């Protein structure tokens, strides 16, 4: 597995500054790349919806579907931006990465579930508006077909959430980069007191700043499963 | 905290039969009781929907909302029955309880999320059908009001899922009943080789049957967070 090493500054209190190598794995890049593609597709589809509404003189943003859908897209873009800033760029300190990881995972799963709910509401709207003769309420074949599509979307969502929430289906520890302690060594581009650590393993590696309170907090973060599913 | 002790039979292989005391806490009874009340309310509301449809000659079970809603209610009743049979009644063996707990937790959260999605679809349907003059698409005050209700339901769901998925918000270990090892003791109503164990802590207590494979599996069950949120 290709590992890209990035240098991150870690500031504790007002005095101590440690430079930390953060290993970013191929999986993380694939995760970020796929989500960027999904974001682009979401923007294209949003433009299509607004242009379709404008062309047919249908008001924009009146339905609950549109409110929840737009909210999900806004939170998704925030999630993407925050993910880039904190987990891909080399500026965020390791404790910040560790603290934000459980929120990042929860937000990702919540946005995914909200998008599925929004899709189901959109399907409901479309069936009511489009099936007029025969009406949706008479259960024509189109209605049955699209209802089945809706059920399949629910099953898809359930499977993804099951996979994403199984801790033993996460990337196993042996695939994670090894974390050798170094004291005083100066490997490529780092200064004294540097230590290599995978950001997702931040709580397990002693990076020289852990008070008892911080240790407990880190243990809690560990319990909270801050290691990404990717 | 009041603890009700129940005797459970544990069968390993074909020969060994161990009787195990399973501690069922007040929290578990409250959890079961509240869900039973919710199930009764769900059945009452289902009957109301069908009677309303029949009285107004509206076809039943044609919409995606009804399909997903009924599926959720069916799975909810199965979840409740299975919960009673496995976690409340004293017949299920401890390994079975431990194996089913992560599935029980996942199903509970999934059914909860599905019910929220179903409610949002129901709200969408109702707004389209009921708001005619002025129409839903002209955003009358009722539309804004009910859209806000929908958003509040999403926020409610997000908060509940956040609370339920935080491991450190689970019942802390010190509130769990203590698990003293006993070998050969015969406390109230149990036979030789009995051991007291909380079903939710099954993986942590050695109940005298753990091979290396079982130990590893139990560790995995522990990782999977099989301890109930209640």
UniProtKB/TrEMBL annotation, chains A, B:
Tagged with keyword Lipoprotein: no
What cofactor does this protein call for?
heme b
Give EC number(s), comma-separated. 7.2.1.3
Q: Name one GO molecular function term.
A: transmembrane ascorbate ferrireductase activity
Enumerate the InterPro entries for this protein.
CYB561/CYBRD1-like, Cyt_b561/ferric_Rdtase_TM
Query: Segment Disordered: which positions?
Result: 173-230
- For the protein in the UniProt heading, the enzyme class is translocase
UniProt keywords, alphabetically: Cell membrane, Electron transport, Heme, Iron, Membrane, Metal-binding, Oxidoreductase, Translocase, Transmembrane, Transmembrane helix, Transport
Membrane spanning segments where?
20-47, 67-91, 103-123, 143-164
Positions of the Cytochrome b561 domain: 1-165
How is it placed in the membrane, per its record? Multi-pass membrane protein
Q: Where in the cell is it found?
A: Apical cell membrane
Q: Which GO terms describe its cellular component?
A: apical plasma membrane; lysosomal membrane
Q: List, as start-end ranges, the regions of compositional bias called Basic and acidic residues.
A: 213-230
**Reactions catalysed, as given in the entry:** Fe(3+)(out) + L-ascorbate(in) = monodehydro-L-ascorbate radical(in) + Fe(2+)(out) + H(+); Cu(2+)(out) + L-ascorbate(in) = Cu(+)(out) + monodehydro-L-ascorbate radical(in) + H(+); monodehydro-L-ascorbate radical(out) + L-ascorbate(in) = monodehydro-L-ascorbate radical(in) + L-ascorbate(out)
Its main localization is membrane
On subunit structure and binding partners, the annotation says: Homodimer.
Q: What is this protein called?
A: Plasma membrane ascorbate-dependent reductase CYBRD1
- Species of origin reads Apteryx owenii (Little spotted kiwi)
Q: Taxonomic classification, please?
A: Eukaryota, Metazoa, Chordata, Craniata, Vertebrata
